[in-house]
Design goal:
558 residues, five-stranded parallel beta sheet, 15 strands, globular
Length: 558
């Protein structure tokens, strides 16, 4: 099978949905680079980062044992076994990425992240001749179920199809994702998926994979990992689940640091936030004054987690906990010694934990992660650790045969689709109409322009008769303006309805290319593409299209 792709350098700046920092950083703006280096672009800097990671840390035997056990339960992969063996050797470095546990792998960018880490590790290995292993950090400590309990697929004949789990108290849940089971509602979600996609050429293979992994008794994290590991078995992607009782003692030093240095860390991070805000950037992660970067689960090891806020001297309050009583610093440290699994990382502390456990040369992230990496330098400096390279993940938009056919029928380029629906339909209607058919804007300008010129001509005459008539003229002008605007609106809607076939094609394209007004990769899930193109073929398409150390965006054309 042959694939083609072309680079789209402007997509992120035109359709950014996260902090503006990542747009400026990818563009190379000096102000953005003052917060986060773009060393990933330079071969010499990449070599230094790899050498520093190799010299700074070895994977501990305790972590290696747990990694071996965690990865042993996944799809067989000699490549993964070789990478695990490499992690045990001195001088090996890691390229890390990670993601929340979206239903049926969540949005497409999950796959793009994993592929980017694999290709980046391969490129660093070739450049430096050092072993480099791609690692996927499973973000099982997070608790935001509404962000991950669904999957969206396109319907060729209509709007998007949203498949979602029905999990009790999902919106209010504070328990880490690691402890959430799929439950019986996954079965109707799978049945809907099969009904929607079973006619596609490669549906049976991929749907069977999903059905084996996504069972009611399985966890969200377990099913997610099973499927992603199967897709990248040939590449040897290694998985780390930090929410493991065997790993909790290894995380304890990082949480102890976060507790002991809470005030100092909050201060330097607040200064960083202020600097980013002054520079005109939206801050990605809010830092609570004086609060540690760890969450605490007071009720049960698998129970809700809460942020800690300073209370009276030597004590902390649990933000959002029904019990308003404070917990003392001594009690918190005792809990950390006795039951470290009660502690979980925040978004800003998780990178430090990753780089404490692993010899991380680079982290591959999306636009949002790049934005919060801009906040991290003071944290790493306070911890006395160098930051790894921050590398943007690959960004793609898939144009399959259906999308290309729809684009051809209406004569549009992909980027032209991302405008308001009525505007796009009006543009198509006037483009294909006789020359005498005006655009709504031209019609409004002509009608009101003619009236305005006549009004100006008679204004002097009216003033000569009675100066008080000027108010009546202004009121008349406003009334006519409203009337002309209403007429133009009706004309615009009539143009939009003029070609029902074009409207149908536009709706299909908008659903496929810019679903919910966002880039395709941030909304649509893998099942449609895997069932239509083939799971391995699509995975290989993405791997082949990933260009290491590039922030460009591409169209993928199977």
């Amino acid at each position: 099978m042959h694939f083609r792709w072309r680079v789209r350098r402007d997509l992120l700046s035109r359709h950014a949905v996260t902090s503006s920092f990542s747009t400026a950083w990818l563009r190379g703006d000096a102000s953005a680079l003052s917060f986060l280096s773009d060393d990933y672009r330079h071969r010499e800097a990449r070599a230094r980062a790899v050498a520093a990671a190799a010299a700074s840390r070895r994977v501990s035997p305790a972590l290696l044992d747990v990694l071996g056990a965690q990865n042993a339960r996944l799809a067989p992969s000699p490549a993964r076994e070789r990478n695990l063996a490499l992690l045990a050797q001195p001088g090996t470095v890691a390229v890390v990425t990670g993601q929340q546990m979206g239903l049926f792998l969540g949005p497409l960018y999950t796959l793009y992240k994993a592929a980017s880490a694999i290709v980046t590790a391969r490129a660093l290995r070739e450049e430096t001749s050092r072993p480099c292993v791609p690692v996927f950090w499973l973000q099982t400590e997070d608790h935001d179920l509404p962000e991950i309990d669904h999957c969206v697929i396109p319907r060729p004949g209509g709007g998007p199809c949203r498949l979602a789990l029905e999990l009790p108290d999902a919106a209010a849940s504070r328990a880490p994702i690691a402890h959430r089971h799929l439950g019986p509602s996954v079965l109707p979600a799978l049945a809907t998926l099969r009904a929607e996609l079973e006619a596609e050429p490669h549906a049976e293979e991929f749907l069977s994979l999903l059905e084996r992994a996504y069972r009611p008794e399985a966890t969200l994290a377990g099913a997610f990992t099973d499927v992603l590991a199967s897709l990248f078995a040939d590449e040897g992607l290694v998985f780390v689940d930090p929410r493991d009782a065997r790993l909790a003692p290894l995380a304890a030093p990082v949480h102890r640091f976060a507790l002991q240095e809470a005030g100092a860390l909050a201060s330097v991070l607040a200064a960083r936030t202020e600097a980013l805000t002054r520079a005109g950037y939206t801050v990605q992660v809010h830092v609570r004054p004086g609060s540690p970067l760890s969450f605490f689960s007071p009720d049960a090891l698998d129970g809700p987690r809460y942020r800690l806020d300073p209370a009276e001297a030597g004590a902390w309050s649990l933000v959002g906990h029904p019990d308003s009583s404070a917990i003392t610093q001594d009690a918190l440290h005792a809990a950390l010694e006795r039951e470290p699994l009660r502690f979980t990382t925040s978004a800003l502390l998780r990178p430090l934990l990753q780089d404490t456990w692993l010899p991380t040369a680079a982290y591959v992230g999306g636009p949002g992660e790049l934005a919060y990496f801009a906040q991290l330098a003071p944290l790493y400096a306070h911890a006395g650790r160098p930051m790894p390279l921050a590398i943007p993940r690959a960004r793609f938009r898939v144009l399959d045969d259906r999308a290309r056919r729809w684009l051809g029928r209406v004569g549009l380029q992909p980027d032209e689709v991302n405008v308001p629906r009525d505007t796009l339909l009006t543009r198509l209607a006037t483009r294909d109409a006789p020359e005498s058919l005006e655009t709504p804007e031209a019609l409004e300008a002509r009608l009101f322009g003619a009236f305005s010129s006549e009004l100006e001509r008679v204004a002097g005459q009216v003033s000569a008769v009675d100066a008080n008539l000027q108010d009546a003229l202004r009121r008349t002008e406003g009334t006519v303006r409203v009337a002309v605007s209403r007429l133009t609106g009706r004309y615009r809607r009539a143009l939009a309805r003029r070609d029902a076939t074009a409207a149908e094609q536009v709706d299909r394209l908008r659903t496929f290319l810019f679903p919910e007004g966002a880039p395709q990769e941030r909304v649509l899930g893998l099942p449609y593409f895997a069932c239509r193109i083939g799971a391995r073929a699509f995975t290989q398409l993405v791997l082949d299209a990933c260009v290491p150390f590039s922030g460009d965006s591409k169209d993928l054309t199977p």
